[in-house]
Design brief:
about 200 residues, 10 helices, globular
């Protein structure tokens, strides 16, 4: 699959990808999204791939202190700041894609997968499932654990246990669950969670 056609979206999104380590999270999630699209040829990559590039751009317009005070911890997925980043993400994505002359029908479909990607448990389409899985899969990587454990004030070992206990079961596709388990095993080994819980 030629993904270079999405390079203009990457360039347009760049100013919004520095918040909350999204310059690490989004490229890793994008790699998973590309692989998921290849495994599911019935899915529309023109929805999934722009969606994953732009799904977290809304964090860039929210005060970082508010993000960390309200966006992590108990009931975080239902927090107002989580919902706000989705709404702002839709707004920014529509602006960026409109400037790139994306058709209105695609803008609408991409907006649907960005809106609620964190806060809505059920997926609205296969494309939504793939985006939601790609968004979560990065957490199982060494980089994802190293970054996110600080957000949640956990050790890498504690965060790895949380992933296994709470997040793995939220993945939609069988391949996503398999890769999450394999990546988590590799990440635990790399981070020596056996001796550094």
């Amino acid at each position: 699959m030629d993904t270079t056609r999405y390079d203009p979206i990457w360039r347009a999104a760049l100013p919004y990808l520095r918040a909350r380590k999204n310059d690490v999270h989004v490229p890793i999630s994008y790699g998973y999204a590309v692989r998921l699209c290849a495994m599911h040829p019935e899915a529309d990559p023109d929805v999934v791939l722009p969606g994953i590039i732009l799904h977290d751009v809304g964090w860039a317009v929210i005060d970082e202190r508010v993000i960390f005070e309200q966006g992590f911890g108990p009931n975080m997925m239902e927090s107002a700041v989580r919902r706000l980043h989705e709404q702002e993400g839709v707004r920014i994505a529509r602006e960026l894609l409109s400037a790139l002359d994306y058709p209105a029908e695609l803008l609408d479909r991409i907006s649907v997968v960005i809106d609620g990607h964190d806060t809505r448990k059920a997926a609205r389409s296969l494309e939504d499932e793939l985006l939601k899985d790609a968004d979560k899969l990065w957490r199982f990587t060494t980089a994802g654990i190293a970054i996110a454990c600080d957000w949640f004030k956990l050790t890498p070992g504690q965060y790895a246990a949380r992933l296994e206990r709470e997040i793995a079961g939220q993945l939609f596709r069988p391949w996503s669950r398999e890769i999450a388990a394999a990546d988590l095993t590799a990440s635990r080994a790399a981070l020596r969670c056996d001796v550094l819980p």
